[in-house]
């Protein structure tokens, strides 16, 4: 893809790598070992297509940054849009799954706490019944107390 750098140098070819929901870019494929020039977490960005140019797209991190990119042709842009959109959707699904697990765990804990209170109440009733029985037997001083 090409990335808009600035008005002085304009569109520059960059090597983009999408891995585990993070889009990183480099000066070239050979520079991957040197570390990325920048990266974008797909979960937090919006993907926007250009209204007139079918090779251009934008990745927007709301309130922070805009990345302007351009593919060599419309088909290549479409492949990138599908990959980026799928990556973003999978991250959203994963987060939703985790939220569901947390919610289920929370509900399960509430149920267990409710059961625990019930068992505690039952146990306390039994303790009171035994105490009353012992107290009643002490008053009549029969051998059954032993």
Automatic annotation (TrEMBL):
TM region(s), chain numbering: none
**GO CC, any one term:** early endosome
Entry's localization field: Golgi apparatus, trans-Golgi network membrane; Membrane
Q: Which residues form the PH domain?
A: 1-89
Q: Which GO terms describe its biological process?
A: endosome organization; receptor recycling; retrograde transport, endosome to Golgi
Give the InterPro entries listed for this entry. Boi1/Boi2-like, PH-like_dom_sf, PH_domain
Q: Which PANTHER family match?
A: PLECKSTRIN HOMOLOGY DOMAIN-CONTAINING FAMILY A MEMBER 3, SESQUIPEDALIAN
**Protein name as annotated:** Pleckstrin homology domain-containing family A member 3
Species: Neovison vison (American mink)
Keywords tagged on the record: Golgi apparatus, Membrane, Phosphoprotein
Look up the domain of life of the source.
Eukaryota
Q: How does it sit in the membrane?
A: Peripheral membrane protein
One short Pfam name that applies is PH
